[in-house]
């Protein structure tokens, strides 16, 4: 197993390099950029040169020289050069890519172009929201999906199975952001009730609350976002649990266990449950990371939750490349490590699975 883990870790290096190389190449051909963003702000509001690139009045001095940046006509070429140096675009693309990879290998992610904060600090500020949404939606979906899936498998073909399948399909088909808007209209001061807050994870008086009150306040703010996210989150896991249970119940060892006189409860939860839950439990790390980093951008926006999803979107929109590439690198690395963790979970649950033997 140690050799298998080492091989997987070694394969992560070229995989990460490929992801970053392709992304960097695409960015080179994408229109717009941080320099163009500053130029656009200069054209839209006077005096921006002092704040963004220095130079004050010289920035808007007329120049006869042409510029490669759209909308930069009429700006001082020296000011454009200072902007390029500030953002690192005075270096060849290959050199910039090499320096980026070297810094990322040492987990040095640099500083945001526009927020005057390090990328690590920005990500750290958004973590509470992403952790809250990812952790609780994963636990909530598993807590609902597994018992419901088992119940559906035991009562296959019954009215309960039919009705719950219909509800699951309808819930899965409803867009989460549309349901979130409905929740706001009904329960967050829209047109009816005003029971739940609509911004952030905590109230303004958080520091004055006792610990029990803080816990209540925390879940009070999370209630509507979690309901909106969980509407379709448990559908896949529920059906997967049901089908996995049905497959195991039909196997020969179940018939043998029943023939030996074991009670139905002992057969189901002493034998079937462990084998049926293999694929469910082993997929938990991936499900958590998926919910953690791929939380709904629209849900975060609708409920004014400033998480990693919103950070990534705003960074792409502003062409804040240090944040864009750093989040891509971190997410890709965690995704690769999670895949390895899922494989190791398989072997922990069922020792019969040996990836090292299969790889050889």
Structure characterization notes:
This protein is mainly alpha-helical and 360 residues long. It has 2 domains: 34-108, no CATH class; 120-359, MetI-like (MetI-like fold). Helix content is 71%, strand content 0%. It is built from 18 helices and no strands. It has helices at 2-29, 34-44, 48-52, 77-87, 93-105, 119-154, 159-173, 176-187, 211-233, 235-249, 252-259, 264-276, 278-282, 284-293, 297-302, 308-318, 321-349, 355-359. Helix 1 (2-29) packs antiparallel against helix 17 (321-349). The longest helix has 36 residues, at 119-154. The protein is globular. The N and C termini lie close together (11 Å). Residues 45-66 have low confidence and may be disordered.
Categorize the overall geometry: globular
Question: Number of helix segments?
Answer: 18
Give the number of DSSP strands.
0
Largest sheet: none
> What gap, in angstroms, lies between the N and C termini?
11 Å
- Estimated helix fraction: over 70%
CATH topology of the largest domain: MetI-like fold
- Using only C-alpha atoms, the radius of gyration works out to 27 Å
Mean pLDDT: 79
Structural class label: mainly alpha
CATH classification, class level of the largest domain = Mainly Alpha
State the CATH architecture of the largest domain: Orthogonal Bundle
CATH superfamily heading of the largest domain: MetI-like
- Note poorly predicted spans: 45-66
């Amino acid at each position: 197993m140690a050799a298998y883990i080492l091989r997987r870790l070694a394969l992560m290096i070229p995989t990460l390099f490929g992801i970053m190389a392709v992304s960097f190449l695409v960015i080179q051909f994408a229109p717009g950029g941080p320099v163009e963003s500053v130029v656009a702000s200069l054209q839209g509001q006077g005096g921006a040169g002092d704040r963004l690139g220095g130079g004050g009045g010289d920035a808007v001095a007329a120049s006869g020289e042409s510029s490669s940046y759209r909308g930069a006509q009429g700006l001082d070429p020296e000011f454009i050069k200072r902007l390029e140096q500030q953002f690192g675009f005075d270096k060849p693309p290959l050199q910039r890519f090499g320096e980026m990879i070297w810094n990322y290998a040492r987990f040095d992610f640099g500083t945001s172009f526009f927020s005057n904060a390090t990328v690590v600090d920005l990500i750290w500020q958004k973590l509470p929201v992403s952790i809250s949404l990812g952790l609780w939606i994963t636990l909530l979906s598993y807590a609902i999906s597994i018992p419901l899936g088992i119940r559906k498998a035991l009562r296959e073909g019954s009215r309960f199975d039919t009705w719950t399948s219909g509800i699951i399909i309808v819930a899965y088909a409803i867009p989460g952001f549309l349901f979130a808007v409905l929740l706001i209209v009904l329960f967050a001061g829209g047109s009816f009730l005003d029971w739940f807050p609509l911004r952030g994870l905590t109230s303004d008086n958080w520091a004055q609350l006792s610990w029990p009150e803080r816990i209540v306040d925390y879940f009070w703010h999370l209630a509507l976002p979690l309901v909106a996210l969980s509407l379709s989150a448990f559908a896949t896991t529920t059906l997967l649990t049901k089908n996995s249970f049905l497959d195991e119940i039909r196997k020969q060892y179940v018939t043998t266990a029943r023939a030996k006189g074991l009670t139905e409860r002992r057969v189901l939860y002493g034998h079937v449950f462990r084998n049926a839950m293999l694929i469910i439990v082993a997929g938990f790390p991936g499900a958590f990371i998926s919910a953690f980093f791929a939380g709904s951008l629209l849900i975060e926006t609708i409920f004014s939750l400033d998480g990693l999803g919103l950070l990534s979107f705003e960074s792409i929109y502003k062409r804040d490349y240090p944040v864009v590439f750093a989040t891509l690198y971190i997410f890709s690395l965690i995704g690769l490590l999670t895949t390895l963790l899922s494989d190791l979970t398989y072997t922990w649950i069922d020792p019969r699975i040996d990836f090292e033997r299969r790889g050889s």
